[in-house]
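User: Predict the complex with magnesium ion.
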Amino acid sequence: MTALSTTATARYHEFDLHSAQEFARPFLDGEAPLAEEIGDGNLNRVFRVSGATSSVIVKQAVPYLKVAGTSWPLTRHRARIESDACAEHSKLAPGFLPDVLAFDENLSAIIFEDLRGYSTWRELLIASRHQPEVAERAAGYSAAVLLGTSHLTLESRARKEMRHRFSYSELCLVTEELVFTAPYTDAPSNRYDPEIADDARALSSDRSLRTAVAELRFAFQTRDEALIHGDLHTGSILVGPQDAQVIDLEFAFFGPFGFDPGLLLANLALARIAHEAAGDPTFATIIDGYAHLFWDTFADECRRRWRPTEPWYSRFLSSLLADAARFAGLEMIRRIVGLAHVADIDSLPQPARSAAQRSVLGGGRALVSGSACRNFEELWLRATQEEAFA
Ligand code: SR1
Ligand code: MG
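Assistant: Here is the predicted structure with magnesium ion placed in the model:
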């Protein structure tokens, strides 16, 4: 990776097409690169800049939460976190993340290799398009980075140094607010359909649910077990003809083991419920298979990386599963009543949409405030509310 030189002219400015082109020019051939803005993300501006024979992606952090507008200011520190986390995770899971070609601290901008022709896993799931080995790739990545940045495999001095470098993430505060707080209060950022208003409001009056959520928020804030991705949903996985790649590491921080697998499983459950509600049980069953493959591969990979000097693997996995189930429940709930929804559900026509939303809320609540899940079948059955899939 090249650290672009920062000159007086490279003071921060929000890119337009022209400045994105100029920024990427050293990485492209030909006279006049062409830029197009391709990002529809919640946080950053993303451009594809094409030269004569190749193209790159330019991702720039803006000083506010893009989806909320300038009324929600943010630092641009997340670009540094994303660049550093990509470097660390690429060492542990080589070939699972796009190459970072350059990072400019002043401009809060990263140049990535362009995965042209790839689609997000979420897009493929919505379109009922099966692509083999995505679940296994996601699981392999997750297990590699969780164990690889934990005290379970990383030597103490190196881990402390890494921990120090990732000492503060402002996006953790965004997650604390959007995932762990807003859905359970009458927060102005919440968004939900009028048809499910009673179900949404019921969340804040359920004392035992709120108690469980508060405990999980504390776990998220305090358990620095591994350098996690922090936002591992199906939109953070790009799928191509030959492989799948993990993107969007700006939420990375030292957090609990169960958070990443929980988020991924929650998003598969959202996709599964959407297909069931839309009357497509065949693809719903295919998603059941992905979820099982994800968990089985994840458990196998953790086992393979486990050190024989640590005689407590079964306890580790049981506790990770129980945590993942609860974090999954939170993710499901917030995708229905919080600020950031998912297209799997929002693209459904009525009445399937409300039916799916209620089912997701039911699954989420069962995961968050039910007893600890003891095995994967229990987790998936609760998440998807599918008695038949026991
Ligand atoms: C305001 S940011 C909303 C969501 O988008 C990101 O992908 C995270 O999931 C975040 O919670
Ligand atoms: Mg994202």
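The two ends are 48 Å apart (CA to CA).
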